Amino acid sequence: MNKKRITGAALASALLFAPLAIQTSTAMADSFYTQQTNAERADITNWVANTTEDISNNISAQHIDTSNLHGNEYIIQWGDTLSGISDATGIPMAKLAYDNNIQNIDLIYAGDTLVLNRDGEVPSDWHYYGDGVYVAKTKVTINNFVDNSHNTVNINVSPVSHEEASSSSKSKDDGNEYASDLDPDGKKGEADSDKDASKSSSDADRDADTDSSSDSKSGSKNHHSDSSDSKSDSDSDSEMDESAFSDAVSDEVSSKLGLDDDKLTVDFTGKDDDDSDSDADSDDTSDDSDSDTEDVYDSDQDVSTGSDKLTDENAEKLADKIVAQLKADGKTKDIDDADDVELTIEANDDDFSFNVTLTTTDDDSDSDEDSNSDDSDADTDDEDTDSEDVDSSSDEGSDEDTDFDDESEDADTDTEDEDQNSSSDDEDSNNQVTTTDDENTDTEE
Amino acid sequence: MKKKWTVIGIIVAVIVIVCGGVYWNMGHSVAKKIPGNTYLYQSVSKDKTLYVTFAKSGDRAVVNSDKATALKAGKSQQDFDKEYKAQSKLTSWNYKAEGGTLTLAQETKDGKISQWQYNGILATSKKFTAHSFTYQIAKAGQGQVKSKTVFEKIN
Question: Which UniProt keywords apply (chain B) (predicted)?
């Protein structure tokens, strides 16, 4: 009898305290964030660039001697910028970027570890982009709400016009506007950020800013998008058929890019369709000799919305992601310039992949337009590979074009993507758009 | 005896009215007090500072962690314009003050807007104190913090 009671009590206690224990262990994961309160994390000072002097003090506070930097590890603080760190340490930005595998030097995260090393040189073929002037971002969502897509705080006295603010916040271009890029759902962000923070930043996971193509650095970003699959998607609407879904995406993309309705055609291939492959990489039709067709990307780009349901909401999400990526990659101008735009979307398991084919018709060729418009497979990727492949070293060349799209502010700074190499092994790691779901749980306190 | 209580009552009423008036004024005067001034803001954790210079007219603000820059911006309209322009290459800051509320909004080059709204402000000629702040930070989070924050006038 006694034994039973004890067992029962133990079981009850375990059930009662298990969540607490789990939370504690998660919370302890990343000391940088967990040592702070929401108030500290949300403080306005974190979003204003530190002076060089401030950064020097931060470095000194971590017992790093700036005159003797040989692989020291510095934990990036709020308000730090890479250019500021460069000034404070005397290490050129290129060297910092190279040592830490940072492609986009405007995208660094507070709490990440930065290797400071004066030794060694930067290979001439190492490329990075950005100015290094943006302050470190957060890897966790600072949030008091369980679901911050529907519970918004009230900023009732705002210098920003309502439209502007709402267009900014509703531009789910990058998913949830008020969630960290690396934190599609709060808990995951913490866990991952822990990994990142605890490891030397020369590791592959600094990929948040790195791209892509190059070898090993594809890490946590993709991670996040993958792991976000597990999130329950909140698509409550009913599913639609493929053509309706395709229309919905088309409408959204057209309106977001400001295209005429008849300029954009969407070719959607569902998961179950077999012809998807042939569609995606189909070869050119030679009959449109008077028009140039060009794929915007050499390889299909993966986009994750966290759900593969053919719902209105998912169509909107997908359109947002696609538009965000096109904007981030600086493709919108090409799209504007084209006469016809064909968006090919293919549903994978829980993701979608897309590519855009642009058709530019020559003045004298009237007939071609017709043939193109319905010819969804008329993409030739040959053209761009010929003409734009400048780099002979294919691996290195590819990095600069495949930036992470989640930070659209960087979009302007980079690069023409045209010279993307089509080395197929790289393509998947590029341009993964993380799914930012609406279920941002609040950060631990 | 009755007269005495009447006098006391009147005195109390006057005190209450005066204090209430002062308090009400402090709670509604931030918009009048800040234009053209530079304030030092200390972070919630007290380990970081920033400086905010509010435009004499309009809704612009220069927000910087460098004191010299902030003070320079407060010198003249021309200096303010210059500093604001320099700052705007990266981010532009605007503000709006109304009643007991001040909101600072940051817009980055790519159009991402973050806002910090300071609520329940009591303003004196030397400083103003907010009793809480509400934040909406792009790519970071949103919520409300019930911590006291102080902006101290430094010019």
Answer: Membrane, Transmembrane, Transmembrane helix
